[in-house]
Amino acid sequence: MRILVDTNICLDILQNRPVLCSSSTDALVLASSKKYKMFVTTATVLDIMYITRKSFQNNNNQKITVQKFLSSFKLLKVSKNNVAFGFTGIMKDFEDAVQASCAKKHFINLIITRNIKDFVNSPVKAITPEDFSVQFK
């Protein structure tokens, strides 16, 4: 199974968000133990670096931590067509639409996200980390 991990799941873990970190970590550990292929998009990497910049004591610590975290994932390039899909309005949230379009292009089976309501019109099924842990145990 090919799984796209949405930015918010990565941030749950990297920022050690109370309550959310545990379920996101559990989902990724389960996916890893099942030997599923996990992916993030290039947009996710950019967003993570921007959002977490104040969460770390220094820039070097941030780079090392994020790079180590991302080593478990394969990286998907966001294309011009993925961005164009974001502008169509088929999905309400632009960034999530780009993620979903990228997932479809790369034959992703499932997106793990906290915002399933934003993925209602996604071409790829989205699931919360909690539901993933229950359904794929």
Verbal overview:
The protein has 137 residues and is an alpha/beta fold. The chain has 7 helices and 5 strands, in the order βααβααβααββα. The protein has a 5-stranded parallel sheet, with helices on both faces. The mean pLDDT is 96.
Strand and helix layout:
Blueprint: E1 2-5, H1 7-14, H2 20-33, E2 37-41, H3 42-51, H4 59-70, E3 74-76, H5 80-88, H6 94-105, E4 110-112, E5 126-127, H7 129-135
Parallel strand pairs: 1-2, 1-4, 2-3, 4-5
Helix pairs in contact: 1-2, 2-7, 5-6
Helical content (DSSP H or I, runs of 4+): 40-55%
Number of H/I helices:
7
Roughly what is the average pLDDT, rounded to an integer? 96
| Helix vs. strand class | alpha/beta
Q: Would you list the SSEs in sequence order as H and E?
A: EHHEHHEHHEEH
**Radius of gyration, whole Å:** 14 Å
Shape: globular
**Strands side by side in the biggest sheet:** 3-2-1-4-5
Q: Kindly estimate the percentage of residues that lie in beta strands according to DSSP.
A: 5-15%
Strand count:
5
Q: What kind of sheet is the major sheet?
A: 5 strands, parallel
Fill in the keyword field for this structure.
single chain; 137 residues; alpha/beta; 5-stranded parallel sheet; 5 strands; globular
